[in-house]
Write a structure and sequence with these properties.
InterPro entries: Acyl_Trfase/lysoPLipase, PNPLA_dom, Teg/CotR/CapV-like. GO terms for molecular function: hydrolase activity. This is PNPLA domain-containing protein. The chain has 342 residues and is an alpha/beta fold. It has twelve helices and eight strands. Strands 1, 2, 3, 4, 5, 6, 7 and 8 form an eight-stranded mixed beta sheet that branches. α2 runs antiparallel to α4, α3 runs antiparallel to α7 and α6 runs antiparallel to α7.
């Protein structure tokens, strides 16, 4: 009966999770891929998911989707606004900050551009105004623990969305930590980029779905379907030995983010059946690996489209079927199983 129901498209929809990695300007990769997913979903992604989780730029994108924005609009906004968040030096003070950054004495950007961009996107909206449940990852430098913002937590409902995203995107060496109140104690905590521990928020998102809550029971693991979008996997190895404190710091930061992203991906593959976990991630050249070079956005979009042509487009079509509660096409389950065991 189950197979008959699935063949007729009568199977109930799974619990659908969208996860979005951090990666600065490289977030445009995820936006392009989600835009293509929306083509197959025949509508905006927020209408087809039950939970969105994001880190850094992934948190920004996730909150924008949850607000009701579609991927086409977000792609245009990010392509135009990235230069505001990662502004090139325009004054003596900016050049002084860059020099201090090279020797490890200051963040590369003062944060004003990032905050202006976030305020322009989210205005005065609070977490309670989002149309879908959202998790945004950050890292509490005071408690030295990951901090998860949730639009379903009572003490997070009135937090401004722009401020949550500012905290999630406070990448060390690029931006100063963001100080804000995060709970009922009223004390401010210094928060840094969630990529320090959960650049790929997929494991936390799955755990959230499986956890029983007052508002609902935990979701059976076989009913959880994850659409997970990366921002490019940089090349392995360091081609040049860094000559400054900033250079060593950047290498360490990249190693932390890349390592955490890979381990969470492996964990998610073991938690879910192969047809329930869909990861989209492309190799990226060393030239395009920088997280703050806005001059690379067009090249990154070209890379995203090349990845689609290399087979990802067909996988997005099957993912859309799973998200709509339809069976994937014949032969695809075998392909996914082979991919998982390869």
């Amino acid at each position: 009966m189950k197979n008959l129901a699935e063949s007729l498209g009568l199977r109930r929809k799974p619990y659908r999770i969208l996860t979005l990695d951090g990666g600065g300007v490289r977030g445009i990769l995820s936006v392009v891929w989600v835009e293509r997913l929306e083509h197959y979903l025949r509508g905006p992604v927020h209408a087809h998911v039950d939970l969105i989780a994001g880190t850094s730029i992934g948190a920004v994108m996730g909150c924008a989707f949850a607000m009701g924005m579609d991927a086409s609009e977000l792609r245009r906004i990010w392509a135009d606004s990235a230069a505001v968040a990662f502004a090139k030096p325009a004054s003596l003070a900016d050049h002084g900050r860059r020099w201090a950054n090279r020797v490890g004495l200051a963040a590369k950007y003062d944060g004003a551009g990032l905050e202006a961009m976030l305020r322009s996107i989210f205005g005065d909206r609070c977490m309670c105004d989002l149309n879908r449940p959202v998790l945004a990852m950050s890292y509490d430098l005071q408690t030295m623990q990951v901090h998860v913002f949730s639009s379903e937590r009572e003490d997070h409902l009135q937090l401004p969305v722009w401020e949550v995203c500012r905290a999630s995107a406070a990448a060390p060496l690029f931006f100063d930590a963001h100080s804000m109140v995060v709970d009922e104690t009223g004390a401010k905590h210094p928060l840094a980029d969630g990529g320090l521990t959960a650049n790929n928020p997929v494991v936390l998102a799955i755990s959230e779905a499986l956890r029983e809550q007052p508002s609902r029971k935990g979701i059976p693991v076989e009913d959880v379907v994850v659409a997970s979008f990366g921002t490019g996997a940089p090349p392995e190895g360091q081609h040049q030995v860094p000559r400054t404190i900033f250079g060593h710091g950047s290498a360490i930061l990249q190693a932390l983010i890349t390592g955490a992203t890979a381990s969470d991906h492996v964990t998610a593959r073991t938690m879910l059946p192969s047809h329930n976990y869909w990861r989209f991630q492309s190799a990226i050249s060393e030239r395009l690996a920088e997280m703050d070079n806005v001059d690379h956005i067009d090249d990154l979009q070209a890379l995203a489209h090349a990845y689609l042509q290399d087979g990802a487009d067909h996988r997005l079509a099957q993912l859309a079927r799973r998200m709509r509660g339809l069976p994937i096409e014949p032969g695809w389950l075998e392909r996914l199983t082979q991919r998982e065991t390869a």
